[in-house]
Amino acid sequence: MKILTFVLFVLISNMSFSQEKPLDTKLFGSWSGTEKDNQRVGMTKNWIMHRFENGNFILLFTIIEDGEVSNFTESGKCWTVGNMFYEYHNNSKQTDVYTYQVLDENHVKFKMKSSGIGQDNEEYEFIDTKLQDNL
After folding, report:
1. Torsion, Cα of 30, 36, 42, 48 (10° steps)
2. Over the stretch 89-122, which tens digit does the pLDDT of each residue have?
3. Which one of 68, 78, 89, 101 is least enclosed by Cβ atoms within 10 Å?
């Protein structure tokens, strides 16, 4: 009986951990954004993000700061619960948490609630703009 109970516990645990976390379907697809002096004074950041239906994302950044240009990518998983957007980054193993508001079908506003990285702006927010499909 103990073995059966243990096996059932393991199966139920694995099922709950393997379930995909839902992502608001309005957030699927490719999005872009830009900001200047918002996250840090003197820094301009541009990005393109693609959110896949399974919750995976890839994020491409171009940053201009002190006359230097740098590019980097991030990837991870994202999901939503109510009006909260969660973004787990594979590189840092940190999860950023935002509130989000769909302004219209082409614009979503995000406001940071917590992050694994330090920032100058505690009221950090930005707007993603949907990139149109060329079909």
Report:
1. 10
2. 999 999 999 999 999 999 999 999 987 665 555 7
3. 68
Residue with tokens 């302004």: 103
For the entire predicted model, the pTM comes to 0.78
Give DSSP secondary structure letters for the chain. Answer: -HHHHHHHHHHHHHHHHHSPPP--GGG-EEEEEEEESSSSTTEEEEEEEEE-TTSEEEEEEEEEETTEEEEEEEEEEEEEETTEEEEEETTTTEEEEEEEEEEETTEEEEEEEE-SS--S-TT-EEEEEEPPP--
Q: What sign for the dihedral angle of Cα 92, 94, 99, 100?
A: positive
Output the six-digit token pair for 94.
């940190």
